[in-house]
Amino acid sequence: MTSFRTMAFVLFLVISTLANAQTKTPYLYILGVAQDAGFPQAGCFEPHCMPGWVNKEKRLSATSLAVVDHQTQKNYLFEATPNLPEQLFLLEQEAPNSELAGVFITHAHMGHYTGLMYFGREAMGADQIPVYVMPKMGQYLRKNGPWSQLISLKNIIVEPLRDELPVSFKNLEITPFLVPHRDEFSETVGFSIKGPQKTALFIPDINKWSEWEKDIVDQVEESDYALIDATFYGDGELPGRDMSKIPHPFVMETMAALSQLSEQQRAKVWFIHMNHTNPLLNLNSEQSKVVRDRGFNIARSGLRLPL
What is the pTM of this model? Predict the structure, then answer.
């Protein structure tokens, strides 16, 4: 009996220690996976959008993720989307009473920065939330309303980023890197997110991989997770539009580019930032099955990836 109790107590300590260690390890928490306009998209009443209008549970928020660090009770948000209110609620449920210690923005397209408006006096009336942006993005916010008002009222504090220059926190290092994209108002970056044990690559928007000076194969191999642009599954997804003028890498192209990677390496990839037309939004679609059969993953809100 004594031996059994001793073993049970030891097992309890091991389980408690593991649970405690997991709690203290920062992790990525996915808050949204859709393209800028979410799912269903405004004005879309086609059959593929209707399930989202009829059933609220099928609606999906624009792409965003957070780093949750229970040890420091600080969270770091990547992208301020139009769905920011719901995403902050999800983050509060995940990490109650934690501080939003920083917001990192990739570029000035609607799904990536317009949620900053909710920090303003008409909504949260936030106090000096650090918003990390590249130089042109910072200038855009300073020179254009209503974003300039967020700065003048100190709802947000603009923190400058530089290409390939890391920003360090207690358990976290975040490095921006320039990527080719439509840069009408700002440059575009991806982020390398480094925790105590693992590193994640976050590239929600990019032009074709061939236009990037870096090799996506190498980038996947050098990271533990790669959350990458899956705006469109394949050509012809937008009837009546020339998709060569919307030069995102198709998921089919990305899978082909990464096909020579080992099964273990392919498992690092999480497709994210899916347009309302993308069949990967339906995890039961034939295309979703193809992606999984080839060893890749499809991101979903609520996913946790330890760093």
Answer: 0.90
